[in-house]
């Protein structure tokens, strides 16, 4: 029989054990080994059965065991020490509190998914894991962050395989009362409630659940509220599920409802109000509209409110291809923001204009969430140096007239939260070298360019560590593989072969990630005979562990999974290559440390960052990757290998895959495997161990989320907070009026004439170090010289006279307006490099409250024939 109602019955802890509840509900336990060890000692078997989840553990411990622990003085001392440590961690001064004044009082960080721990399954892949690591590192550094997301009652799907190897999805129901969450309540004890207006007089209501991530609160909105209609209750049913309207409602709840949840949280708890709002991907972009509505209610006009919102907003894009961006029919958005919908009092046309693709190549009938995110944020960034470049090119249409390199999208390369991803054995090895306190600081705060103390660790200790981790992975793989085959219908008698799967002394390669086509899960299968030779080599074999989920709606991705699974099922190779279903955080924490090599072979440049290789590197695993994402900027042959790419628009996709797969096989056969098996007299692979040491010493400090969050604070949050404070209502109104005036007058702005004066002739050549005086005549129309900056831009030129590596510098006005209304600007141009060299001039708007000269997307350049003796100076 099935129950008609479900309850979560929580244990009543004896008074001396009450601190266990607080320790279990603060997710710091997920990255704090001492707290996990404390819970494990409560009931080792129960801890294993609970999957390392303290709440599930406490729900299963017998009353007799709890009574015995309450009388155990040694356990009580450990418990008191853990509780005191958590209190000190949550209230003490950390890196952020030691910085100079002026940093934001609080930052609100919005993301559609958060990967904190497997005990709170609210993530699908890299975006969510990155968001979780951001929160954890902010906590470690003392950054006053408030996380905002949605609570999905089914989370992301659980993956299994059919007997034929086809991916199957399962959606277990999550009960918030059984998760490490508490309901945000008003002072009178009633649940805090968020409401959004929907067309037709309907209402979308949501409760707010709170997870405590160390020092950082994470607010998760939940639409499964009794007062909602059936459709509204299902808005937060699944992560990345449903059709267009379902996704739109999710993103409205995340953005608009999320701001309202933050306001409720700050009002109820007294937490400082955020001065900076950070949107992690475009899904939460509607938060800017809600902030405009708030200011409009206080009397601000739309344009002034927009300037206030932009000043304190940061937008991070993780998407390297337009197809990865959420886009909605403009009519659907208009229906939800029109009469009877959300944001009353705001003209729906102003809303649509923020997301409209009104640039060459865009589709004006679509509403683009990333475009809105960029228009609502004064500061934006990609997540690696290469991805920043790709993003500037992808969104260049929003800044017409500017070269892609001048598009105001910066880059902050992602990092990973080392205490979450470093194996305890690796941490203990480091702690033996420098002490536990210094080791913890090195992993959390970072700041050092190198971890040189790694050089003092003996080769034998490093090799013993690597074999221990590989052995643990072999055990984990066999256990998971056995469970997978049972789910596929195999009987115990059929599975004896699994005891021989993988070998702790064989070179082990890992490959695990989502399965969109550009990540090329099956590139390794391009030449199956060649791969089989590598797997079964008599002297230098390799073994490969693969994991990954395809999106439920992506049949192409599912076919890739099935293709790989069928290969791994082959009795000839199944002891050397395995596919593990249901890839998630719990699996990843065993997989990264146990691999010797981490493989990544996306289509370049479609990997925004790719943090899995960073987690592997922190455990001494070497990277073998296409030069994409973070590997493009930090690759060095001292600690890894680069897979050559067959770039070029004329390259056929199949041909490209063939060439790059062949390069991968060659690297494995000729360089990677020989180095792993090259043993000295003592049986140690000295050159391999040196690469491991260099990976830890050089890559370790770079890939930290602590480094990443400090960059966000210093380069984005602090300037955004300063800009936010500068825009009081009067300043915002003045800035909005100035922008409107400049835009209206810009068609009349022109560069009329450019003249170059030199001591020698300007006949296409000049000497290095000589100086040219530029004289530029411009028309400003209704604008004043204080509204603009006239610049010279100089640099190298290609055969088509396009500038590259250019530098700009301002020219000075020489006096009053001439009789013809023109103004004259002058300045010296120093010829500071040899080879093809050229220059141009341009006019940009300028204002003290602009973050960048390209912000308005307005520029005036010389027309053809405007230059006399100008142009290319040196060949």
TrEMBL record:
One of its GO terms (biological process) is carbohydrate metabolic process. It holds the Pfam family Phosphorylase. The modification N6-(pyridoxal phosphate)lysine is found at residue 615. One of its GO terms (molecular function) is pyridoxal phosphate binding. Belongs to the glycogen phosphorylase family. PANTHER family: GLYCOGEN PHOSPHORYLASE. This is glycogen phosphorylase. It comes from Streptomyces luteoverticillatus (Streptoverticillium luteoverticillatus).
